[in-house]
Design brief:
The chain is an alpha+beta fold. Helix content is 26%, strand content 23%. It contains four helices and eight strands. The strands form four sheets. The chain has a two-stranded antiparallel ribbon. A two-stranded antiparallel ribbon has the order 2-3.
């Protein structure tokens, strides 16, 4: 979850148009026809993640406060959109991410080849990481002897 939080796949605004009759958002009247949106990257810079929300810290998810973890998870899920345009594949994507990461770390030791400059990241509305080199070695417990 921390990887998605810090590096959401899409960073452009998720815009919607307010219905013709207008609406209220957090007590403010918004005229009909107004475009409103949220930035998926900006939504992850939220104090629900702690005072160090700008830091990549996976262990922030290992807390006993179940309600806070639920709120954190709902906030991270915004990277998949919200409402009628939410990505229908989110449950499958999350299952694949968790399963893939678990299996990779179960069978291999993975280290970043250049920790001082691990990758190059460019954003054109969608993030692209390049030059991410790792060393992968089989875990001893997984080697057939």
């Amino acid at each position: 979850m921390e990887g998605l939080r810090k590096h959401p796949p899409a960073a452009q605004l998720r815009e919607r148009m307010v219905p013709p009759e207008g609406d209220y958002i957090n007590g403010y009247r918004v005229p009909g026809g107004t475009y409103i949106g949220f930035n998926t990257w900006g939504t992850q810079l939220n104090e629900i993640f702690g005072e160090d929300y700008e830091v990549f810290r996976p262990e922030r998810w290992l807390i006993k406060d179940v309600e806070r973890v639920k709120a954190m998870r709902r906030t991270v899920e915004l990277v998949f959109g919200h409402g009628s345009t939410k990505c229908l594949g989110m449950p499958i994507a999350m299952t694949e991410l968790f399963k893939t990461i678990f299996e990779l770390l179960r069978h291999f030791d993975i280290t970043v080849a250049n920790p001082q400059s691990p990758w190059t990241s460019v954003c054109y509305g969608i993030f692209f990481q390049t030059d991410f080199n790792v060393r992968i070695t089989p875990r001893r417990s997984c080697i057939d002897i």
